[in-house]
């Protein structure tokens, strides 16, 4: 991948995404593609849910410049279009979990049989050698892909969070992928589109008049694209990175998703039902504002991504990195709870000092 091609592709992805974010606002209003406050939603006013549509346009405008037309790109386009289409309907009409899961399984099949991307092995997470999946490869690919798609969908609960976590994962993948890799070009192009969306979604005062959400369309497409890139980099004889290292790049969304799923099933509830048990909910209940929640969770994910990148280049054994990742996953909720409790205690101390004064 040459610099004269990659830089314009990144620029196009960013500019096209921003252009469509503006262009789609009247469309969203006319068709009712709006997120209205009420119930579990506490934002102010009706917010257009157009981020997914705009990023889709930006990503593939940039990829056509960076990579050119190919069967692989056509498969990624088809799978992403299907997620976007179902996501838009879900954002407007709220589809059943069954419809969403069936669609996501169809997307996996497009990726496997069209794009030729398959989780054929898990690397060496236990130190006993590479674990080849053989006939179980399709099942594992489906489970991993659905987990990632829904992890980024479920973490999309406050302004900027899903976009920032995705941006960290994508840039981390680009860092280990090497400059000339097509997977790196894909990661950087998608990063540019996500960056364009964050102009409209990051929680700052100046963008409130144009505030927009990515919706299920955007979050599911982002999660799927990250899986696509990670599989392209971590599988085959010419792999660029271990599958174990890739786990570090999306650690926080995975921890959040799996923790909520396990806790809900232990309570006899459906893991797919909405709830207020995600990490961002815990931090908000501790009195942290949206920006502090965003900073805390993005900061943690940035630390995990840097740890993964450092371990990759330092040649740290996979079984050590997997053991550390598993320990982090088991303890992550306790860490989040500790941060929330610490902040509540800080608020109480400030109130006592203020009252004494």
Task: Tell me what you see in this structure.
This protein has one domain (3-356). The chain is built from 13 helices and 2 strands. The protein has helices at 3-31, 51-66, 71-93, 97-114, 137-154, 161-177, 182-201, 215-234, 243-249, 251-266, 279-285, 290-314, 318-356, and strands spanning 34-35, 47-48. Strands 1-2 form a two-stranded antiparallel ribbon. The longest helix has 39 residues, at 318-356. The protein is globular. The protein starts with a helix and ends with a helix.
Number of domains: 1
Major sheet: size, sense and barrel closure? 2 strands, antiparallel
What does the average pLDDT come to? 93
* Number of DSSP helical runs: 13
Count of DSSP strands: 2
Low-confidence stretches: none
Q: What's the helix and strand layout?
A:
Layout: H1 3-31, E1 34-35, E2 47-48, H2 51-66, H3 71-93, H4 97-114, H5 137-154, H6 161-177, H7 182-201, H8 215-234, H9 243-249, H10 251-266, H11 279-285, H12 290-314, H13 318-356
Antiparallel strand pairs: 1-2
Helix pairs in contact: 1-2, 1-7, 2-3, 2-7, 2-8, 3-4, 3-8, 4-5, 5-8, 5-10, 6-7, 6-8, 6-12, 7-8, 9-12, 9-13, 10-13, 11-12, 11-13
Q: Descriptors for this entry?
A:
two-stranded antiparallel ribbon, mainly alpha, globular, 357 residues
Q: TL;DR of this structure?
A:
This protein has 357 residues and is mainly alpha-helical.
